[in-house]
Design goal:
The chain contains four helices and no strands. With 65 residues, the protein is mainly alpha-helical. The chain is globular, with a radius of gyration of 10 Å. The mean pLDDT is 93.
């Protein structure tokens, strides 16, 4: 499943719950955050000072085979 920078954080976590540990590993407290329903990956990475490409790569790497 390809993840994009304009995907909503909440949509990713709901449709692919196996991504939640990635959010937590990057110290993103998006799990349970009401703003996650409005924030894109790009917004969240900018807000948390995280390299977007590294984060997207980690999300893609966690997809079960």
């Amino acid at each position: 499943m390809p993840f994009r920078s304009d995907d909503l954080v909440d949509d990713i976590m709901r449709s692919a719950p196996y991504t939640i540990p990635v959010f937590l590993a990057f110290r993103m407290a998006c799990v349970g955050c009401p703003i996650a329903t409005f924030h894109t990956v790009d917004d969240a990475c900018r807000e948390h000072g995280i390299d977007r490409e590294k984060f997207l790569a980690a999300l893609c790497d966690c997809v079960p085979a």
